[in-house]
Amino acid sequence: MPQSPKVTAVDSLPANEAKWIEFQKITWSDQTGKSRIWEAASRKTRGKSGVDAVAISTIIRHPSRPPSTIVILQYRPPVGAICVEFPAGLVDESETPSDASVRELHEETGYKGKLSYISPTIVSDPGMSTANMQLATVEVNLKEGDKEPEQALDDGEFIERVVVPLDSLFERLEAYSKEGKMVDARLFHWAAGLHFARTML
Amino acid sequence: MPQSPKVTAVDSLPANEAKWIEFQKITWSDQTGKSRIWEAASRKTRGKSGVDAVAISTIIRHPSRPPSTIVILQYRPPVGAICVEFPAGLVDESETPSDASVRELHEETGYKGKLSYISPTIVSDPGMSTANMQLATVEVNLKEGDKEPEQALDDGEFIERVVVPLDSLFERLEAYSKEGKMVDARLFHWAAGLHFARTML
């Protein structure tokens, strides 16, 4: 029976012990020609594509249900909480971000879909990190009576998937937040843009 | 005359030299009770509010122009490029995120607006970072003939503001990307959600 994950200690990490991320001391020349220093975190895992990660905005269409998307819930040690995110993952060394999008959606949610859009490379938190990503749209067309597919998780992966109608996504994310879950900023922004278009324009 | 900023060197940063960010070695107990390690980057600047930063989705309404938002363009050393972002900034030690939103919008764009919404605390990149933020909506109502206000930038801040009609925001971000600018993932997701609602629902 699964236990509640929890953070048991937070220590400072010496640079020479870090396996997945590294610290950069960036020297740059500003608009006046002055030399300055900026500090940033970077992933060590970026492969040939030059893109760290992909996230997937899934659109599920069904003959008798409203258009929906999928969010995933998983414990994230950096923030010590269950996070609510779009399905997402790192791009493998020799795969394309497009292939990674369809693969990750299948692994994390069980759904196989068709990639209909992939964004340019965008940056996750450019004030403190080199991390970049692409946002994919994957469409899943269901027929009446289709069963919910099985996830294809690795051993030790605990990821819950939730299908959410698009017209209640924003309210659902706010409700998750009230329960103590942490919503990913990118997913929240997508939902806020959608909500804004539907209610204020 | 301003020069083009550029990165001149990238070195590894020893933990004891870092002033703004730090590395955490997080020990956590997973769903099977097994003890595991996670590596994360963290800002050292978080104040009393518990929130690192705010970003502002501005809505400008004008009697004869379409509803618009403001994006800012600034050079970001971690990604070595001009980034396109919502106006944003760190929350000062003793201010509230709501106050920071109105203050930052004024400093970076010159516009004074009314806060109409602030999100729960959301997390920017929870797989590698503790960074968190809140997303504000600030409304600016202009009258016919109102002039574009002056920015209130600090010395050494080079921030360009651009007013963009909401109905062309998504295409504008894709165009910036084609020019070699890097679009912030959170702004891009907001625009993608808005675009999706207008074109596919």
UniProtKB/TrEMBL annotation, chains A, B:
SUPFAM superfamilies: Nudix. It comes from Trematosphaeria pertusa. Residues 51-187 form the Nudix hydrolase domain. One of its GO terms (molecular function) is ADP-ribose diphosphatase activity. This is Nudix hydrolase domain-containing protein. The keyword Disulfide bond does not apply. GO terms for cellular component: nucleus. GO terms for biological process: nucleoside phosphate metabolic process; ribose phosphate metabolic process. It comes from the Eukaryota. Keywords: Hydrolase.
